[in-house]
Design brief:
Helix content is 51%, strand content 14%. It is of the alpha/beta class. The chain starts with a strand and ends with a helix. This is DUF2229 domain-containing protein.
Length: 326
């Protein structure tokens, strides 16, 4: 029987799930994903996590709990330090496997091999070797498995750049027809935020679908190429060394500068340090130029759906009114 490896539907799931799934399956594992976020999953996460943590980390705790319930043999929580040269992922990712070990009882083995490409790309060899060894596979097989999985990852990123959202791109990779999005849209809105905030329908209060249902085409920073993101972020006097913040800021600036969107919504999570800085940077710049309407939404475990709906409706009304008035 294959070993069962659990992957939480949280944090960098929306970027790396196709890569991790294919890699682990090629190493002979059965991949088990935690359930879609529910109130119950979030509540369990909040109960087991330290109060000071940000909302996405609390939610990820709930997803790990969900995998413990599924009785998996391993939980895959790579210690994400850096995925790009001279850049970092938020330190909370780095400490996440340790926080989980300290706070969750009955955990199976945690696969927490580090990924740190800040200085050397070759660290990824070490990562594949260590994960392979934990699953009883040799270094060559592990490396080849990763190479094939990387091809899938590239295809996945290509689908995102074509305008699909993560769940849609994953369906296409699984051989399903892409869902037709409504073509009766009269405006385009960029939703800028961390992937685990904007793509999780529960935590974002179904933001993207609500916008689509209201007649808006939705774009995110992940629908841009790396080159476009970097073009956008060039206007900053200093390089942003947080990879996700760079993507968000560059994405917002690119959409703004190219005149591709009618409005920009920034989604921030409660207790997120990088979000408070990125949100401020984007807001200051966009308000100073005054070309594109901007709205900031803060999410926390108490955010009410009614408040979000009212604000979205008002924002879209204002964007539509502005287009006719200008
Ligand atoms: S970037 Fe913000 S939301 Fe993401 S893990 Fe770090 S503190 Fe939490």
């Amino acid at each position: 029987m294959p070993v069962r490896v659990g992957i939480p539907r949280a944090l960098l799931y929306y970027y790396y799930f196709p890569l991790w799934k294919e890699f682990l399956e090629r190493l002979g594992a059965e991949v088990v994903v935690s359930d879609r976020t529910t109130k119950g999953i979030l509540t369990r996460g909040v109960q087991h996590c330290v109060d000071e943590a940000c909302l996405p980390v609390k939610l990820a705790f709930g997803h790990v709990q969900n995998l413990v319930d599924k009785r998996v043999d391993f939980i895959f929580l790579p210690r994400m330090v850096s995925v790009a040269h001279r850049e970092y992922i938020c330190p909370k990712f780095l400490g996440f496997p340790d926080m989980v070990r300290q706070n969750i009882i009955g955990l199976p083995t945690v696969l927490d091999t580090a990924i740190n490409q800040r200085k050397k790309q070759r660290d990824i060899h070490q990562f594949t070797r260590q994960v392979g060894a934990a699953l009883g596979k040799g270094p060559i097989r592990s490396w080849l498995a990763f190479q094939r999985a990387w091809e899938t990852h590239q295809k996945y990123m290509g689908l995102l750049e074509q305008g699909l959202l993560p769940e849609e791109a994953m369906s296409v990779l699984a051989g399903k027809e892409p869902k037709q999005t409504a073509d009766n849209t009269d405006l385009t809105v960029a939703v800028i935020g961390h992937p685990y905030n904007i793509y999780d329908p529960f935590i974002s209060m179904n933001l993207i679908n609500r916008l689509r249902k209201s007649g808006a085409r939705v774009l995110t920073a992940d629908n841009l190429t790396e080159q476009m993101v970097n073009q956008g972020v060039k206007r900053l006097p200093k390089k942003l060394f947080w990879t996700l913040s760079r993507r968000m800021t560059g994405g917002a600036f690119n959409y703004h500068d190219q005149g591709k969107v009618d409005g920009i919504i920034h989604v921030a999570a409660f207790a997120c340090g990088p979000d408070s800085m990125t949100g401020e940077l984007i807001e200051r710049f966009i308000r100073r130029e005054g070309k594109v309407p901007f709205m900031n939404i803060n999410l926390d475990e108490h955010t009410g759906e009614a408040g979000i709906v009212t604000r979205l409706e008002a924002f879209l009304d204002m964007v539509r009114w502005r287009r006719t008035a200008v």
